[in-house]
Write a structure and sequence with these properties.
Blueprint lengths: L2 H10 L1 H6 L2 H16 L6 H18 L3 H20 L9 E4 L2 E4 L30 H9 L15
Antiparallel strand pairs: 1-2
Helix pairs in contact: 1-5, 3-4, 4-5
């Protein structure tokens, strides 16, 4: 069984039976964290992200399958929480301009605010290539070290 399959089985099976829907479980946790830290409640989806961070830290220190299963599980619980809150999970849209990529931006989820699909703002890339007048061009070609303001050296004024 893959890490993902195991995580999904736990999140939708044993864990949900034991702790209830992740929204309810993580809302309780977020209220407790807020009280302990002396801050407003931590949103349930943020609790899931913080728990995922703990698993990443543990994986960096001592790699083992359980960390990866739990990490995948926390990603699934965050998705379930956002579904329950009727929040559209933001996606990133890539616009390719030659070798440059531009990404649409979206606001962070805060509390119960809802984020909708981001809009892509068209990006126009313009390359500016200055052109020299014939006098400037001739001066640069004939005497590049003359010192005038026109060609940068000062003699072609």
């Amino acid at each position: 069984m893959s890490v993902i399959e195991e995580a999904i089985g736990l999140v939708h099976g044993a864990r949900q039976e034991s702790y209830g829907h992740p929204y309810d479980d993580f809302s309780r946790t977020g209220r407790m964290w807020g009280a302990i830290l002396g801050i407003p409640d931590v949103a349930p989806d943020k609790v899931g992200l913080c728990l995922a961070a703990v698993k990443i830290s543990r994986e960096v220190n001592a790699p083992k399958r359980d960390n990866l299963v739990d990490l995948a599980g926390y990603a699934e619980t965050v998705a379930l929480i956002r579904e329950r809150e009727n929040v559209t999970v933001p996606t990133v849209t890539t616009v390719t301009l030659g070798s440059t990529q531009a990404f649409s931006e979206y606001e962070d989820l805060v509390g119960s605010e809802h984020v909708t699909e981001p809009t892509v703002t068209p990006v126009t890339a313009t390359r500016y290539t200055p052109t020299l007048s014939s006098k400037q061009s001739n001066a640069k070609q004939s005497n590049a070290s003359c010192g005038c303001a026109t060609c940068g050296e000062g003699c072609c004024e």
